[in-house]
């Protein structure tokens, strides 16, 4: 079966505070990079899916995001799939 | 000054083990998604940079990655910059 590569971002919902990001925004000033603001920090996940088609791979990857990788109360996810080299 | 948006992935070096990713790969089996393998987990960071040009923004964002956001002993980073809407 062909393999597909998924790249997933799991980020804190825009409506929520992101304390880790806030702390890093503050640190930017201290290292002389005050031009950098609005830092938000989430997870990036890459994985491989074995599936018969790109659509099937997308479905499987979405399922993994919903069941395991993201917490919909606090996070949203973005997903891109491409054929694996 | 114009604003730019940077999207940054900080991932564990490919030569290194990623225990968190390994654990999640194992969990995929338990939730009926054995087709998913090779999970690797890192950080995704989005931030805004105020700079005179895209090149200047890229430089500032790279500096922030090297000085604060990534640990080059264990991680590598990927960076994309675009004009902020």
Keywords:
3-stranded antiparallel β-sheet; Mth169, Chain: A; 85 residues; homodimer; alpha+beta; 2 helices
Condensed summary:
The structure is a homodimer of 85-residue chains. The first copy, chain A, has 85 residues and is an alpha+beta fold. Chain A is 33% helix and 40% strand.
What does this structure look like?
Two copies of one chain form a homodimer. By secondary structure, chain A is of the alpha+beta class. Chain A has a single domain (3-83), classed as Phosphoribosylformylglycinamidine synthase subunit PurS (Mth169, Chain: A), CATH 3.30.1280.10. Chain A is 33% helix and 40% strand. Chain A has two helices and three strands; from the N terminus they run E-H-E-H-E. The first copy, chain A, has helices spanning 19-30, 54-69, and strands spanning 3-12, 36-50, 75-83. In chain A, strands 2-1-3 form a three-stranded antiparallel β-sheet. The longest helix of chain A has 16 residues, at 54-69. Chain A is elongated and about 50 Å long. The model of chain A has no long low-confidence stretch (mean pLDDT 96). Chain A binds chain B through residues 9-11, 21, 24-25, 27-28, 31, 33, 35-51, 60-61, 63-64, 67-69, and chain B through 9-11, 21, 24-25, 27-28, 31, 33, 35-51, 60-61, 63-64, 67-69.
Shape of chain A: elongated
**Backbone CA Rg of chain A:** 16 Å
| Backbone structural class of chain A | alpha+beta
List the secondary-structure elements of chain A in sequence, H or E: EHEHE
Rounded mean pLDDT of chain A is: 96
Distance between the termini of chain A: 14 Å
* Largest sheet entry of chain A: 3 strands, antiparallel
Oligomer: homodimer
Main interface pair?
A-B, 34 and 34 residues
Look up the CATH topology of chain A.
Mth169, Chain: A
* Annotation field: number of helices of chain A: 2
Report strand order across the widest sheet of chain A. 2-1-3
Estimate the helix proportion of chain A, in percent.
25-40%
CATH-level-4 superfamily name of chain A: Phosphoribosylformylglycinamidine synthase subunit PurS
**Domain unit count of chain A:** 1
């Amino acid at each position: 079966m062909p393999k597909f590569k998924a790249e997933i971002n799991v980020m804190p919902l825009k409506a929520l505070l992101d304390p880790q990001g806030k702390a890093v925004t503050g640190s930017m000033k201290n290292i002389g990079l005050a031009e950098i603001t609005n830092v938000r920090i989430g997870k990036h996940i890459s994985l491989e899916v074995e599936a018969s088609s790109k659509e099937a791979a997308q479905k499987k990857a979405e399922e993994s995001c919903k069941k395991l990788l993201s917490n919909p109360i606090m996070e949203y996810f973005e997903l891109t799939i491409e054929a694996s080299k």
